# Entry
Amino acid sequence: MSAQPHEYAASYVADDPEIALKYAIQHHQGDRVQIVEGVIEPLSPSWDHENAADLIREQIGPSLSKLDCRAGSGNLDLPGSSNWYVPDLAIVPRELAKGGGALVPDQTLLIVEITSDSNGDTDRIVKRRRYAEYGAPLYLLVDRQERTCTLYAAPGPLGYTKVDGPHPFGTSLALPEPFGLELDTSDF
# Structure
């Protein structure tokens, strides 16, 4: 895990498309947006989507104090790519949550993405591959269309090497250390 939040300098070189695109969305007024493989996507989660995120946050909550962590949906930069993600939920060390800038996936303890009808394949395929490539130690995919949860672990440049699932909603899913808890998926 890197020690400091990732931040760009105040200025950028206009002929660097990655930096220019990321600068533009950071200074965008209005709704939150993310960049997935160079495409700007607006974020507008539904209430049932938010419900699933809150259920996970509530169950992980007691662990957050012990781990000195925070849960949220802050910006994740993937340097060297045209990607700037806003996960549905990420667990990060408290000291990094205070930095104000974007973090990179290897600074998280857990990233959760919850699929929507409009972008389920992005979470299932693209983000899973990119989170592994950028070292996110745990990636939990809550697939509302398939009604399953899958936990990915042991990231590498070619993807995650450990997969637990898919488990149908209603079965518990073991979150390994540092969490060490059974996630109840019955109300997702």
Observations:
- The domain at 45-184 is CATH 3.90.1570.10 (tt1808, chain A).
